[in-house]
Amino acid sequence: MAKPVIRLKSSLPVGAMDTRASGWWAMIFTVFTEASLFAYLLFSYYYLAVQPHLPGTFPEGGPPDLTLALPNTVILLLSSVAVGWAQFGIEHDSKWRLVLGLGIGAILGLVFLAVQYFEWAERPFGLSSTSYSSLYFVITGFHMAHVMVGVAMLSALTWWSHKGYFNSRRFAHIHIGALYWHFVDVVWLAVFFTFYVTPLLGLAS
Amino acid sequence: MSTPDTFSGYERRPSVSAKGPALTDDLRAIWETERGLVGWLATVDHKQIGIRYIITAFAFLMAGGIEALVFRLQLSWSNLKFLNPEQFDQLFTMHGMTMIFLYASPVLSGFSNYLWPLLLGARDMALPRLNALSYWIYLCAGIFLYASFAIGFGPNVGWFNYVPLAARAYNNGPNIDMYALGMILLGISTTVGAINFVVTFLRLRAPGMSINRVPILIWGTLTASAANIFAIPAVSLAFLLLWMDRNTGTHFFDTTAGGSALLWQHLFWMFGHPWVYAIVLPAMGMVSDGLPVFCRRPLVGYSVVALATVATMVLGFGVWVHHMFATGLPGVSLSFFSAASIIITLPSAVGVFAWLATIWTGRPVFTTPFLFFASFIILFTVGGVSGYMTGSVPVDWQLTDTYFVVAHLHYVLIGINVFPVVGATYFWFPKFTGKMMDERLGRWNFWTMFVGFNLGFFPMHISGLLGMPRRIYTYSEGMGWDWVNLITTLGSFAFAIGVLLFFWNVLKSLRHGVSAGDNPWDAPTLEWATTSPPPPYNFAVIPTVASRHPLWEDRLERNPGAIRSETGVGMRLTYGREALGTTPLDATPNVILKMPGDTLVPLGLALAMTVIAAGLALTNWWIVVVGVVFTTASILAWLWPEAQLGETAELSEAGHG
Predict the structure, then answer these.
(1) How far apart are CA A135 and CA B257, in angstroms?
(2) For the segment B484-526, what is each residue's pLDDT rounded down to a tens digit?
(3) Residue B547: helix, strand or coil by DSSP?
(4) B19 found inside a domain
(5) Buried/exposed code over B325-349 (b: 16+ C-beta within 10 A; e: otherwise)
(6) Considering Cα of B288, then B291, then B295, then B297, what sign does the dihedral take?
(7) Cβ pair A2:B270 closer than 8 A
(8) Which of A3, A6, A30, A57 would you mutate first to test chain B, the one with the most B CBs within 10 A?
(9) What would the mean pLDDT of B587-614 be, rounded to a whole number?
(10) pLDDT by residue (tens digit) across B164-219?
């Protein structure tokens, strides 16, 4: 018995609709390729970490200090919470929650960048000191570049939300941008674990 | 029998009708690219982009081929001084880089770009603007990579560009910097193209085309694209880190400051080996779809061939160290990667036996495309066996960096890429142009290429076994290598003549080819259901698919009551550029997608990114800043929510459900 050919029983949504938007799927695979990029970056870190080193050069100056990094990690995670709150807001047709949540997300992202700037300034080494210093600045730099792109995205989304482009049916742009932002936050946890936690666990120091 | 569309808010029930002149006139007005230069630069039509990809890739094939012929002259006898070592180094590096990165992958992207929506019963790729972007970056990256060669500073340490030879200390010119930046640019092109293929596969298949009904070419390109999404970042990163080592004083690959030269090899081959499969699997897919047409039967073992395609790719991520057997890695690592490399012969053999069984149990028609597809099986087997041999560590230690490996990789890449691609051109040329290619010239074309190729490349196995190393610009007499090299050179020229016959046939048939009709080969898949060449909208009504062989159902389906595929009656979708979105596995309709119109933004974005690369090459930060500003502006313009595309809350005339 042959299966019946598809018959259309009801009407279809039109345009960029929730997770049916092509852009949503494109962002999922963008996140995959970006996640791979970070995987290769961290692979480079671990690969060089297990090579023989002079004492005290990997990590250079001993395990990095958590004083700024730990609160900063919390700030970044809170920004994801704010953006998630905005997403739920627009699904319930709440424009003010959308604008506020995205705006707070963008501001917390900027705070994270500012703290990272101080973190960089405090390092006793420069980009070209050792392989460790190169890894440190390049990998955290890669992450900061992603945060900058994310902040730019959130700012644009905040502006568009303020202009009333979105409602409880049309919010694909929001979910697409938010997906990227959540990725940028989650990947920070991997970077944080690698640079700040593994030396405390005894890797390479 | 047309019923009007019914609207409600953001939803619509699309009308269904038969094809007709009123409908096709409407669709043509909606989908056709404007004439003139602006339209030409702005088009997002996958067919135009596909043809551009193919033509550009063939241009690079010619360039890479000429480079090879020049250094084959130098190698044809001992102690020749036709080229100096630096010229030789640049030529063989450019040859490898061109063939692998600028020909082999883009030509397959071109065919897939053209064919995918037609094979899937869709009106375009899922992300048409991204498609245009992918092509423009590819073109810019190709020109960028050739710019330094043109002024005498081409990359010169081999396409895999090992450190420390590629480090600043040993290579002080712009040669390697241009290579590095050009490769990062090209990586962006490949990545966005890959994302487009995967999303198109998941979302734009015709209703009823569940994943067990897609043509094998789709599986090939899909698998390759999925692999590229995970593999390309490795090489882009490697080249960026190298550029930083050379220009900003970092120490990633610098062994004197805690870096590692082997890190380069790992990153390069973690990308490199999956990439090798990415540039052959779509070509194998072409054979799996084309060969059965000339055997007058469906492919034997569709499911196992599809699974073998995916399995090859998955295993392909676990074999990169077989390029590094001679670097002194621990024995456990060698054993693991040797075993993985040998196991990969299993899915490859599945393909070979499926193709052989298809010929064996079919009624072969000996056309030119059949000859190319069938010869591919022989060449793939030869290349596969030499690959299997070097997958064994002791054999590899003996043969690595000799001409044996050169023979292997040419059997694999020319055998599995060039021969299927030429066959595919003969096969799909009628669809692209509405004209047949010349069969008589086709025979001459095939036999010259086949004999020339084997004459040129088989003796390389022997020169390799005689100990001749790769990448030497000359050799002394008395090594016993003169005659094999002379034969190789003669064969390579014969092969080149064969390729020229191919291009001649293309040009001749464009002007004087016999008119083809919609389905000249009596083939089973959807692209043959539309006109040749296809109209800008591909299909007047959205086809419905009930089997793997929509156009062969009458003869394959013995049950007269079975549901048939339908290409004459279907959804019209005429409110602006529209495509049907379907579910990822079963292809049940679940959205009407609003497709973007032609736009110059992708071209602008590609140019802006090229400006960034140029600024970095000149280490001029002002140029970089200008590039970043224009890149940001282009992306913002691209993503700005549009009511017409159904991206905002507003219910516009065209965006209306």
Answers:
(1) 12
(2) 999 999 999 999 999 999 999 999 999 999 999 999 999 999 9
(3) coil
(4) no
(5) beeeeeeeebeebbebbbebbebbe
(6) positive
(7) no
(8) A6
(9) 97
(10) 999 999 999 999 999 999 999 999 999 999 999 999 999 999 999 999 999 999 99
Closest by alpha carbon to B319, among B378, B269, B374, B384?
Answer: B269
Q: Please, which pLDDT band fits residue B157 given cuts at 50, 70 and 90?
A: very high
- Among A20, A28, A29, A138, the residue to mutate for chain B (most B Cβ within 10 A): A29
Token digits of residue B141: 């990256």
Structure tokens at B89: 């180094």
Position B503 in a domain: yes
Last residue of a domain, one of B513, B538, B555: B513
Band of the pLDDT at A4, cuts 50, 70, 90? very low
pLDDT at B657 (0 to 100)? 41
Nearest to A130 among B251, B564, B641 (CB): B251
Tell whether B396 and B495 lie within a shared domain.
yes
| B127 → chain A, closest CA residue | A22
3-class secondary-structure state, position B161 = coil
**Contact at CB, A36 and B130, closer than 8 angstroms:** no
Task: Answer with the one of B497, B513, B529 that is the final residue of a domain.
Answer: B513
Q: Identify the three-state secondary structure at position B16.
A: strand
Chain A contact for B585 (CB, 8 A cutoff): no
- pLDDT confidence band for B5 (50 / 70 / 90): confident
| pLDDT for res B1 | 44
Find out whether B433 and B513 touch, Cβ atoms under 8 Å: yes
DSSP letter, residue B647: -
> What is the mean pLDDT of the segment spanning A30-43?
98
Cβ of residue B329 closer than 8 Å to a chain A Cβ:
no
Contact A26 B127 (CB under 8 A): yes
| Strand, helix or coil for residue B558 | coil
> Judged by CB atoms within 8 Å, which residues 7-66 of B form the interface with A?
8-14, 16
Does B310 fall in a domain? no
Which of residues B324 and A3 earns the better pLDDT score? B324
Longest dimension (CA), chain A: 75
* Residue numbers of the domain that contains B368: 320-407+422-513
pLDDT at A9: 66
Q: Could you report the per-residue pLDDT of B452-468, keeping only the tens digit for each?
A: 999 999 999 999 999 99
Domains and CATH numbers, chain A: 24-53+63-197 (1.20.120.80)
- Which residues in chain A have their CB less than 8 angstroms from residue B562's CB? 2
DSSP state of B240: H
- Single-letter code of the amino acid located at B136: W
Q: A161 to chain B: nearest residue by CA?
A: B648
Q: Domains in chain B: how many in total?
A: 2
Peptide bond preceding A59 in cis form (omega within 30 of 0):
yes
DSSP per residue, B276-320:
HHHTTHHHHHHHHHHHHHHHTSPPTTHHHHHHHHHHHHHHHTT-G
CATH code of the domain in which B452 resides:
1.20.210.10
Q: How many CB pairs under 8 A join A and B?
A: 204
